[in-house]
Request: fold
Amino acid sequence: MVKKTNIKFGNFMSDKTFSFSENIEGVDLTKLPVKVVVSIVFFLIFLVLIIVIGIYALSDKSDSVFVNIAVQSEHFTYSPTSGLAPEITLKKFTPSFDCLEYEKNEYLDSTIILEKPTSVKITRLYKDEIKISILGKGKFGELELNDGPPKDLVNCFSVKINLTENFPVFSMNLHGKTSLGKLITDASGKFPPLLNSGQITLSDNTLVSGEQYSLSPRELQRGDHIYAEGDKVSMSGLIRANFDEPGMEGLFSVTNGTVFIQRYRTKPQEVSFGFINRIINDFELGFVLMVLIVGVKFWGSVINFLLRVKLIQKQTDLVNDDDNNKNKIS
Reply:
C-alpha cells in the first residue's frame, strides 16, 4: 500500500511574490547547481555591459564628438596655435605699428604672417570698417607688402580694413583658441560689439556602424559669448565680412574640447549631449541598451526560478526525512 505524503510549505508558497534575496537566504551558496552559477555569470556580464554603455552615453569626451558653430557676430578673439597660424590677407587697409596712431596712407594687397603666439581681436562695428588688433611679446611676425620690403611686427599691431564696392569682402581663416562674441560685463561700455545670432550643432558617430548623427541645433541669443576649453581642444574656422552688411559671419568646428555659452551676469553653460539625447538619437546605442536590459531581466528571472526549484527540493527533502523518521519511530 502506497502511503500518501502531504507536503506543507507553510507560508513558503502562500506569498505570491518571491524576491531574489529570499531565495539566497534559503540556499547554501557554496553548493549551487551549475545551471544557477552559469545564470549568475551571464547576469553579471549583462549588468557590467549596461554600466559600461551607461558611462559611454554620459560621456562627451570621445574623440569622435565634434561641434559645429555658425554665428553672425561683431567680435572674435583668436589665439593662433603655434606654428599653424594661417596668413591674413589684406586687400585695402590702414596700419598702425604701435596700436596708437594710424598712418594716413592706405596700403593694398598685403599679408600678415604670425610667427609666435599672439592675441588677435577682430571687431566690426561699422559697415565699411573692420579693425584687427594683434598683441604679442617682442617681434611676433611680419607684414609682407606688395611694393616693398616686409615690415616687422613688434608688441602691438593694428589695421583698419576698409570695405568698399571695389573691395567688398574680407575673409580670414582661424586655427587655435577662439571665442565668439564678447563677454558683456558692467564695464563693457555703452556700445560693446555683440554676437547677433547663431546656432550650435553637436555630432557624434553611432555605437556600432560609426555613421554620423547630429542633435537638433541649439539657437544662440544676442549677446552670447561662446568659447571652448580642454587640454587638447582644437578649434578651426572661417570668418567673412561683406560690404554693406552688418557684423561678420563665422563657421567653426571644435573637437577634443567642451564648448560653453556665457551670458551677462550668468555662469557658463556647458554644451553637451546629455544621456537622454544620446540614447534617443543614436538608435544603435538605444537598441543595444534595450537588449542588455532585457538580458538582465531574463537572467535574473532564470536565477530566481532555479533558486525556487532548489528551495522546493530542499523543503521536499526535509518533509520526506521527517516522515521517514516518524515511520521508524512508529
User: Anything to note?
Assistant: Residues 1-22 have pLDDT under 50 and may be disordered. The chain has two domains: 31-60+273-310, 66-272.
